[in-house]
Amino acid sequence: MTTHPFNDLSLAAFYDTLNPWGPGDDFHLGLIRTADSVLDIGCGTGQLLRRARAEGHPGRLTGLDPAAAMLVQARRGTPDIEWVLGDTRSERWTGEFALAVMTGHAFQQLVLDEEIRQCLDAVREALAEGGRFVFETRNPGARAWERWTPDRVHTITGPDGAEIRVHHEVTHGPADGVVGFSETFECESWPAPRTGHNTLRFLGTGELDRFLTEAGLRAVARYGDWDRRPLTPDSPEIITIAEAA
User: Fold this and answer.
1) Which DSSP category does 94 fall into?
2) Alpha-carbon distance 69 to 182, whole Å?
3) pLDDT at 14 over 90
C-alpha cells in the first residue's frame, strides 16, 4: 500500500528541497535536450521539464503525475508546459512522443506484474517511431533498503524557515524483491509527525528485460550509475534506455 505525504499541499511545497537537483537530473536533461517531444511520467513538481523549458527547449513538454498537490507546484509560472493529473492507466497517447522518462525511481512503485505490463504497454503506445523510454531502478544487489533506518535522519529547511527532520524505516521485506517502508516528517511547530507509507519492487536486469520484451521494447543501453559507468553486481542503479523492438 502506498500513501504519499506529498499529496499534502504543505509538504509538496518543499519536495524540491528534500530532493534537490542531482546527477540523475543532469542525465535525463541531456536526453530531453535532444528530443522534440517529451513525456515525463511521474513528473512530481516538474522541475526537470521546467529546467528544460527555462533553458530554451522549443518542443512539446508533457508532465503526468497522480498527485494534485505536486502539480500545483509544477504549474506555477509554466503555462507553456502541459501538466496532466493522472497516470498511464487514466491517460493514453498514441505515437506522440520522441522520449518518455520515468525518474526518481518511480518505476519501482509498480509492484505487481500487471502494473508493470500496463505501464510499459502505455509507454510503447505513446512513443513515436524511433522513440525511447528511459528509466532507472535501484539495483537489488546494492541492497539500498538496509540503509533505510530511523537513525539516519535528514534535516531540511521548510518554506517557512522551520527545520524539518525526515527518516525512513523498513516495515516489511525484502520478500520476492518487494520492500515496504515508512517516511516520517517531524517539525517542532507541528502537532504531530506526518508519515507516509510506500512499497517498492526491486527488479534485476533479467526481469526487466522480460517485461520490456513483452511490451515490444528492448534495452539498447544500460548503466550502473549516472556517469554512464558499466553496470556491475553492486552498482547503485540500473539505468535503462529502451526503444521499440
Assistant:
1) S
2) 20
3) no
Condensed to tens digits (0 to 9), the pLDDT of residues 164-208 reads 999 999 999 999 999 999 999 998 988 999 898 999 999 999 999
Instruction: Name every residue whose Cβ is closer than 8 Å to that of residue 80 and which is 6 or more positions away in sequence.
Output: 53, 61
Q: Is-above-0.90 flag for pTM?
A: yes
Per-domain boundaries in the chain: 5-139+203-244, 142-201
Residues 6+ apart with CB under 8 A from 51: 21, 25, 29
What is the per-residue pLDDT for 149? 96
Give the β-pairing of 178-186 and 194-201: antiparallel
Q: What is the mean pLDDT of the chain?
A: 93
CA distances from 14 to 151, 162, 164, 185, 205 (A): 22, 11, 10, 12, 34
What's the fold here for domain 5-139+203-244? Answer: Rossmann fold (3.40.50)
Cα-flanking dihedrals φ and ψ of residue 83, to 5°? -110, 125
List of long-range contacts for 163-172, beta carbons under 8 Å, 24+ apart: 163/187, 163/188, 164/14, 166/18, 170/145, 171/197
* pLDDT value of residue 75: 93
pLDDT of residue 6: 56
Place of cell 528534500: 18
Kindly report whether the peptide bond that precedes residue 5 is cis, defined as omega within 30 degrees of 0: no
Cβ contact 190:208 at 8 Å: no
CB-CB contact of 213 with 242 (8 Å): no
